[in-house]
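QA checklist item 7 of 12: single-chain prediction sanity check.
[x] sequence parsed
[x] length recorded as 106
[x] structure emitted
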Amino acid sequence: MTTTNETDGRLVDAKAQAGRARLMEIEQELDAKRFAKRFVYGRLRELGKIRLGLLQEILSDAGGIPMYALPAAKSLGCDVERLPEYGDAEFVFAPRGEAWGEEGAA
């Protein structure tokens, strides 16, 4: 027969374990978002502009999560525009400015 203290102790342990697991999930998500932001910055610094779909593909190939590409670009101050000359595909443009270097801006 289990006592109330034993049951309470197991419940507290289970809650603590669940809390640690959730913290690990949050940490992994933040790491994935940071990776996406660094990756997007690097590609746009190099290219100046890129089709969003291609950016998502190469982010995935590099081990990142494709759906983080657009939020990362927006957090960096990038513009996203549909270009009719490319079938209305969405393109991401590096922002102009010293932080990016004029040669890297589109």
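[x] summary fact logged: The longest helix spans residues 4-47.
[ ] second reviewer sign-off
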